[in-house]
From TrEMBL, chains A, B:
It catalyses: L-isoleucine + 2-oxoglutarate = (S)-3-methyl-2-oxopentanoate + L-glutamate; L-leucine + 2-oxoglutarate = 4-methyl-2-oxopentanoate + L-glutamate; L-valine + 2-oxoglutarate = 3-methyl-2-oxobutanoate + L-glutamate. It comes from Croceivirga radicis. The modification N6-(pyridoxal phosphate)lysine is found at K193. Its EC number is 2.6.1.42. Acts on leucine, isoleucine and valine. Gene3D superfamilies: 3.30.470.10, D-amino Acid Aminotransferase, subunit A, domain 2. It comes from the Bacteria. It holds the Pfam family Aminotran_4. The keyword Oxidoreductase does not apply. The lineage of its organism: Bacteria, Pseudomonadati, Bacteroidota, Flavobacteriia, Flavobacteriales. It is an enzyme of class 2 (transferase). Its cofactor is pyridoxal 5'-phosphate. Belongs to the class-IV pyridoxal-phosphate-dependent aminotransferase family. Pathway: Amino-acid biosynthesis; L-leucine biosynthesis; L-leucine from 3-methyl-2-oxobutanoate: step 4/4; Amino-acid biosynthesis; L-valine biosynthesis; L-valine from pyruvate: step 4/4; Amino-acid biosynthesis; L-isoleucine biosynthesis; L-isoleucine from 2-oxobutanoate: step 4/4. This is Branched-chain-amino-acid aminotransferase.
Amino acid sequence: MENNISIEKSKTTKIQDVDFNNLSFGSVYTDHMLVCDYKNGAWETPKIIPYGNLSLDPASKIFHYGQSIFEGMKAYKDEAGKIFLFRPTDNHARLNKSAERLAMPSIPESHFMEGLETLLKLEKDWIPTTAGSSLYIRPFMFATGVGFHASPADAYKLIIACAPSGAYFSGKVKVLIEQTYSRAANGGVGYAKAGGNYAGQFYPTKLAAEKGYQQIIWTDDNTHEYIEEAGAMNVFVRINDTLMTAPTNDRILDGITRKSILKIAEDEGIQTEVRKIKVSELVDAANNGSLKEIFGAGTAAVISPLAGFGFDGKDYDLPELEAPFSARLKKRITDIQYNRAEDKFGWRHEVK
Amino acid sequence: MENNISIEKSKTTKIQDVDFNNLSFGSVYTDHMLVCDYKNGAWETPKIIPYGNLSLDPASKIFHYGQSIFEGMKAYKDEAGKIFLFRPTDNHARLNKSAERLAMPSIPESHFMEGLETLLKLEKDWIPTTAGSSLYIRPFMFATGVGFHASPADAYKLIIACAPSGAYFSGKVKVLIEQTYSRAANGGVGYAKAGGNYAGQFYPTKLAAEKGYQQIIWTDDNTHEYIEEAGAMNVFVRINDTLMTAPTNDRILDGITRKSILKIAEDEGIQTEVRKIKVSELVDAANNGSLKEIFGAGTAAVISPLAGFGFDGKDYDLPELEAPFSARLKKRITDIQYNRAEDKFGWRHEVK
């Protein structure tokens, strides 16, 4: 361990209080967390301490100027008890991409990976093994430096916390294609996993929920003619037998599940297209029966199939298919994640 | 006092450590702060406690999903020692407007105003009286409710902290008219004082600083043809003797200084126009000599005159005027704020 990560063990454990057969998403935390402070222009050595409250000055910039980024990852345990991560260095790279856009310091890969692996080995009993469950991992970084001046902070904290979790969504959801609100600007921070991107979605989602929709499909902020993301996920559309998704840009997150799905789909011989997708195409395809599937893709839910969508005051149902792409692709990706299948793309990362 | 605000006095004071003749902006905090918690669907009674660290669960949504809003206000002390606020109920109303857009609870005016006034009376010795200085007041609200699920928190904290402050900016600044990055989307949260709006500005501002500009003039995210804000301020342009500013919309903050300046300018007999302003107009006016002034307007700086701007690789200087509108308007507004002139618009609010 190059970084000599110190471990302060918790005197007690909460693990016996957890019902591993009835886990919700991200609401129970393990006994420890990794903490790494950035001060005076450098990252200190990461340390593992008991999970517990943080003490912060009210003038810390996290409370004022939104310098806050995060990642979502999962740890999986196979039948032999081996622990795996899925493309973890991609999460690290994206965390640094988000950090750059929010004028926050980048974190060295060794701090991140060694810290994460040390934490996971300590918390290995917390990784659930019931179907669909995993240890959700939340790396996040925020501004601890103080001051009311609207400028980047001079101190930051990286934390990695873990939460044994069941599936993120249950059942098929009905979404509203948004025509008024937007989640991202051209030249903005939409591609970053920045806290502010999520806060801005809550109110429009609440309005959609009042109309009977569980989520929103976001469209471009200028014309609202092109679909971009589904809630906090990337969005895939299947018209006839072609699977398509919008290209990443400065408004759309470069999702790790998204790019893995594209790769697996190609491997499955599914025709894929990465291109701008017009709302009017979806409506036309729904009307003529060629629209087969829409699903969201992200770490938390993996793949979240939609039951239908609303647009311009009208609802469109999606067909119930015998063998949807969504189920086939989800099986392929989760079989790799849980070490139930060959890892031909080299995505699995064993923690040992 | 309807709300029976409790006061826990600090055992010590830091006031003797403060050099009131050399105050920077927002970096020294008074002895006390107001704290009000929202739990179980209701605001608790505000309380005043010694300024000090907050203890927060690492899963609090402020660290993950950016539910964070704030206001900027000032308290002024006149020669007789009377304390004044400037249009404080407008700040309260805007805080609630921001809260709605970020799916946060609105705060009752009585909690806000009584809490603020009680705090100011306690901290009255902290209000500086040297020229241009004031007690900067920072009301802010953020999500304390916990969970990694991307949804609004169920608990929040409103805090009002105070910082005796000198002037925000010194000297005239040169700005870059931004053509790549943007601060706000149509249908986004640009009009709210949301933390995330500020974090997104830091990186482009850093890039501009590397080119020799102190600030950015933001343009619309779609065409970059229209100017919207200057840094974290509203922007005013004077062409010949007409003063103009962009109309507020969902991308532009409804600034209290902005609307006060418009009112005072009208009262001064200055021709004003509230309309979209093209970058090309500025360039043409700079070239033909009719561009007289550009200035930012906001609570912290009041009015911040610009020395020039850069656009498309070219720099444009603004003339040095004998009697600029900026100085005249700043004098009018600060004379009202510091109780040095008649308050014909009813903007002053005495704290007694």
